[in-house]
Specification:
This protein is α+β, with helices and mostly antiparallel strands and 461 residues long. It has 15 helices and 17 strands. The strands form four sheets. Strands 1, 2, 3, 4, 5, 6, 13, 14, 15, 16 and 17 form an eleven-stranded mixed β-sheet that branches.
């Protein structure tokens, strides 16, 4: 049954695209898009293979990945790229030649100089944020067709000079005489050459001083998620991806080619031989030596892009566009940064309340697998009476989520998690899963570094 909610002041920590929840009924009300305004349809989408980072820059900068999957997407639709009203792209770490990467992508796709484009950044949910922004533009009547999605080339994350080296370089460049240059050379120290690894800094919360993996250890301890459970979840993720590839369930992927003619057609982080016994041999990464989160039960560092076309009913009719589904509701929530992995719990729950739904009313789920421990902790939180009461203001537990309907073709542990792209990927794949199973309703959600959560409710068109 639908959950009831106590009066609570915690609403100040979250935001949504719809109004406050109304009195609950037993009938589902998830039939209108975004609560107000025009309906928003997802027309089509595609993504690149997700390519595992292998210790050096991968074959594709971020813009190349986005163009690589968006170009065939646009080519199979009936409108011209110049008919798009705007382009919105989520990206956390665009390269130095990709400032406002959305604009770079739009121009390279032939959208023309008159089509505006903008980039959004909400850490791990940047791709989902792009879709939400696009949906709101359409719902409010500002746009009819929007190209939106996310991209990340994590293998191209910058390696930076530290401030001491930057200061020394400034002095060197300012030196005019040979005496000044000689003096500057005598001040150069070996420690100036110690680099700042941008990826490591980006995956660490500067407020609480914890890496994302350490926050996963926090919530695993809170809910008693042990190493065996984490590793079993990770193995299942690889098994589901293997099955999905073998049965052709990843058909949203567009093959891409690098400048050397190499061909990439599948997510390459899959480990078909993964087993609990093999994973048990890995050492903890984030809480040495006593932790349980390892490289094997965490999301892979990956390069990839996912792009979707969103449209109004008017545009669907005008261009005779196909419809994959429509966006019903979106919610963004904040929580303690040190517990950031529980973000989906705080983002999904208000959507269920507003639409008079229970967990069992959602046919299929995509919860991004930042860490096996993180997803398992979210499921445990919904079953925990104390957590539901104190943190969510509920009078009862939300209940159990059927894991046979969760991430049915794998997730971040096996597919990878290019942070800017994952939010768009899970929505796109969720719609494919709904179509394949002739199901109606799906929920996509992610935890977000910094202590946030995002979720989107969709229905098949």
């Amino acid at each position: 049954m639908a959950v009831s909610k106590k009066t609570t002041s915690k609403k100040k920590t979250s935001s949504s695209t719809t109004s406050e929840p109304q009195e609950k009924t037993t009938e589902s009300k998830s039939t209108s898009s975004l609560g107000t305004g025009r309906e928003v349809f997802i027309v089509d989408g595609s993504r690149t293979p997700f390519l595992k980072a292998k210790g050096k820059p991968g074959p594709f900068p971020a813009a190349d990945l986005a163009v690589g999957c968006a170009r065939p997407l646009l080519s199979r639709l009936s409108f011209e790229p110049t008919d798009i009203d705007e382009v919105i792209v989520g990206c956390v770490m665009p390269g130095p030649d990709e400032a406002n990467i959305a604009r770079v992508i739009a121009l390279r796709l032939g959208c023309g100089k008159h089509v505006p484009a903008w980039t959004v950044q909400r850490n791990c949910a940047s791709g989902l944020q792009a879709l939400d922004c696009a949906a709101m533009q359409i719902a409010m009547g500002r746009s009819d067709i929007v190209l939106a999605g996310g991209v990340e080339s994590m293998s191209h994350a910058p390696v930076l000079l530290n401030n001491s080296m930057v200061g020394w370089l400034g002095a060197w460049m300012g030196a005019r005489s040979w005496q000044q240059k000689l003096k500057a050379l005598t001040q150069l120290r070996p420690k100036f050459f110690v680099p700042i690894i941008g990826l490591l800094r980006g995956l660490t919360d500067p407020v609480v001083g914890l890496s994302m993996g350490q926050t996963a250890e926090n919530i695993a301890h809170r809910f008693g998620i042990n190493r065996q459970q984490m590793d079993e979840f990770a193995v299942a993720s690889h098994q589901k991806l293997a099955k999905g590839q073998d049965e052709g369930h990843l058909d949203e992927i567009e093959p891409i080619y690098d400048s050397k003619g190499h061909h990439y057609a599948e997510d390459d982080g899959l480990r078909r031989d993964s087993s609990v016994e093999k994973l048990a041999k890995l050492k903890p990464v984030f809480d040495k030596p006593f932790g349980n989160v390892t490289a094997g039960n965490s999301a892979q560092i990956t390069d990839g892009a996912a792009m979707l076309i969103l449209a109004s009913a008017d545009a669907v009719k005008k261009y005779n566009l196909p419809v994959m589904g429509k966006i019903i509701d979106t919610h963004w929530a904040g929580l303690e940064p040190a517990q950031m992995g529980l973000g989906p719990v705080h983002a999904v729950t208000p959507i269920l309340q507003r639409n008079s739904l229970a967990l069992k009313d959602i046919d299929y789920w995509e919860i991004n697998e930042a860490f096996a421990a993180q997803v398992l902790s979210c499921l445990a939180a919904w079953e925990d009476k104390e957590y539901c009461a104190k943190e969510l203001g509920l009078s009862e537990t939300l209940g159990s989520l059927d894991q046979t309907h969760l991430n049915v073709d794998g997730g971040g542990v096996s597919i990878g998690h290019p942070v800017g792209a994952s939010g768009a990927r899970i929505v796109l794949h969720l719609l494919h899963v709904l179509e394949r199973n002739k199901a109606k309703r799906g929920m996509a959600s992610l935890c977000i570094g910094g202590g946030q959560g995002g979720a989107m409710l969709v229905e098949r068109g």
